[in-house]
Amino acid sequence: MQQIVSTKPYLIRAIHEWCSDQGYTPYLVVAVRSKMQVPMEYVKNGEIVLNIGYNATRNLTLGNDFVTFSARFNGVSREIAIPVGAVVSIFAKENGEGMGFEYEISPEMDTHEISEESPIGITPQPEPEPPKPGGGRSHLRVVK
Question: Which Gene Ontology terms of cellular component type are present (predicted)?
Fold first, then answer.
């Protein structure tokens, strides 16, 4: 039996393309867990908001399993790797239009061993406080 791929990565790519075509800046909101390669100093309330526009990233890959890219944070280039299941929304900075998603737990996010399929060396990080439940529904926030 063939494994069914989630629609989530396809929707992320579609909203990213729409933002780029309209001249908007696509932002990704990610629920950060222990095994993600993100700049932890920018994590607030268990989430990080990242500009994933082509002008802010290098080698952006919006894959079916991971979103990967490199970007500068305070002038220092960092490699970012985010499991698609941890993406809770993608939206345009300029008008807040976009799409919210449910947080999905996947084996590569909850184990403490580095997966062979990880696109780059994802190292375990300290577990941040989980985001507070918002009634089960995703929501978008405008980031200025």
Answer: cytosol; ribosome
Interatomic CA distance for residues 14 and 18, integer angstroms: 6
Spatial neighbors of 43 by CB under 8 A, at least 6 apart, are 32, 128
- Pairing relation of β-strands 47-51 and 58-62? unpaired
Helix (H, G, I), strand (E, B) or coil at 45: coil
Cβ–Cβ < 8 Å for 92, 19? yes
- The residue assigned the tokens 């807040």 is 96
* Domain residue extents for the chain: 8-110
Give the tens place of pLDDT for each residue, 17-73: 999 999 999 999 999 987 788 999 999 999 999 999 999 999 999 999 999 999 999
Distance CA(8)–CA(121), nearest Å, equals 23
- Residue 111, both tokens: 């184990």
Query: What's the whole-model pTM score?
Result: 0.71
Give, in words, the CATH class of 8-110: mainly beta
